[in-house]
Amino acid sequence: MTGQPVTLVTGASAGLGAEFARQCRARGDRLALVARRRERLDALAAELGEAHVFAVDLAEPGAPARLMAEVEALGLSVETLINNAGFGLAGRFADLPAERQTEMIELDVRALTELCRLAVPAMLQRRRGFILNVASTAAFQAGPMMAVYYASKAYVLSLTEALHQEAKGSGVHVTALCPGPIATEFFEVAGAADGRLAKLGADPADIARAGLAGLARNRAIVIPGLMNKLTAQSNRLLPRAAMRRIVAAIKS
Ligand SMILES: NC(=O)c1ccc[n+]([C@@H]2O[C@H](COP(=O)([O-])OP(=O)(O)OC[C@H]3O[C@@H](n4cnc5c(N)ncnc54)[C@H](OP(=O)(O)O)[C@@H]3O)[C@@H](O)[C@H]2O)c1
């Protein structure tokens, strides 16, 4: 049985996720907005006129399955999944709180994977579906002083490329969006608001637009901006040891 198609956006209460929601609504999508801060989601739903709100902590075990069951119970089926929720932590691996690092893996890696796994079979069956996974330019090299975050985004990129390839010819689009720094709450949450990258943030509306355009064209990887494209490719030209030193220098 097919429900009413919706675009599910995780991390819709702020930054890039809120922009995805605005742009998807502007093109006529029905929305399912997911994040922990309900009041922010309610405010966005009121602004957009139509949206289902799901106040969920996706880092909790079993949360993605409970969320998808709730969505289905409302007679909705996820036609577009935007796996955007995520956070990073800046600092030395040995010094950062272990439980927050685990929470990062739970959200950025496990929840994203589970949501893909929950959504993709019905998409394949319908021969129609769209999955946009938000990785980062961090996915292309190791990240000293942000080690778990960079590793988690490398996972997101690798998973997404593989799913893209598996879905070829099926009618299901799968795209990894790999932005450089964006002007959102990300750096504050990461404890890096005073760092160099925080000052280089792109407009989230531009990044969301690039991601949705790439998804529509079923691009495997979207890297918005020329500098970010060059940065992402520099790991092919430079030795890995040089890349590690450069990233460490940018972070210090
Ligand atoms: N900003 C950058 O420079 C940058 C660059 C490359 C990639 N990215 C990626 O872009 C994505 C969006 O980040 P952003 O820049 O928009 O950061 P942001 O402004 O901090 O937004 C993060 C979103 O994730 C949600 N979230 C956090 N923990 C959650 C949890 N446990 N369960 C459910 N939702 C949760 C937050 O909502 P609640 O707090 O209400 O739960 C918020 O809506 C992330 O995957 C990030 O890694 C960001």
Task: Characterize the structure shown.
- This protein has a single domain, classed as Rossmann fold.
- Helices cover 50% and strands 15% of the residues.
- The protein contains nine helices and seven strands.
- It is globular.
- The chain is an alpha/beta fold and 252 residues long.
- The structure holds NADP nicotinamide-adenine-dinucleotide phosphate (NAP).
- Residues 10-17, 35-37, 40, 56-59, 84-88, 107, 134, 136, 179, 181-182, 184-186, 189, 201 line the site of NADP nicotinamide-adenine-dinucleotide phosphate.
Task: Write out key terms for the chains shown.
50% helix, 252 residues, 7-stranded parallel β-sheet, binds NADP nicotinamide-adenine-dinucleotide phosphate, 7 strands, alpha/beta, 15% strand, Rossmann fold
Summarize the structure.
With 252 residues, this protein is an alpha/beta fold. The chain has helices at 15-26, 38-48, 63-73, 98-126, 147-166, 186-190, 204-216, 226-237, 240-251; strands spanning 4-10, 31-35, 52-55, 76-83, 129-134, 172-177, 221-222.
